[in-house]
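Quick log. Single chain, no ligands specified.
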Amino acid sequence: MKKICSFFAPLFLFAFGNSIHATTVIPPTFDELVSRAEIIFQGSVTDTRSQWIGEGAQRHIVTFVTFRVDDAIKGSPGASYTIRMLGGTVDGQTMEVSDAPKFKTGDRDFLFVEHNGQQFIPLVGIMHGRFRVEREQNGREIVATNGGEPLSDVARLGKEDNVVSSERPALSPSEFKAAIQGSMRSGTPLKQQH
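-> predicted structure:
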C-alpha cells in the first residue's frame, strides 16, 4: 500500500486557501466551541466514502462522512448531514492529516461544525470539535473526547490541565446537550487568550 504522508498536507491545504499546522491547534474552550460552530448536532455515522478530487498538483483525496442527525442543537443540518474532510484511502493510496478525527460507520458523535466544504477539517479546533458517545461497562452512556477520554467537566475544555476529573462522573449525552444549550442561551462572549 502506498501511503502519502501527512507532511504533504500543507501542499494540499494551500489548494484550499487555508494553512494550519495540526500540531499547533490551540484547544478551544467550551464557549468557543459553541459560539464558533455554525452547526452542532448529535448523530450516527451511516457512510464514509473517499475519492480523488482536483487535477494535477491540486489532486488530493477527500472523505465524505455522512451522519444520520439524531438531534439538531444549533443550525439546520437536516435529517442527514455530510462533512467533507481532507484525507482518506482510495485504491490503496492513503493521505492522512495528523490529528484529524477518524470516523467509521456506527460511530455516535456530537459534532461542532464550521466552514464545511471550505476547511480541510470542518470541525471547530479539528479534533476538538468531535465528542464521542460511548457506553460504559455498566451500560451508562457517556460523552468522551475525540481521544476517548471521558468528559466530566466542560469548563476544563481548552485548559492546560486534564479534561478528566476523578471526582466527577463523565457527562451523559443529555447533560452535555444541556451544557451546549446553556452556553447558547448565555451568549457568553469569547474570552481573549493571554
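The radius of gyration is 17 Å.
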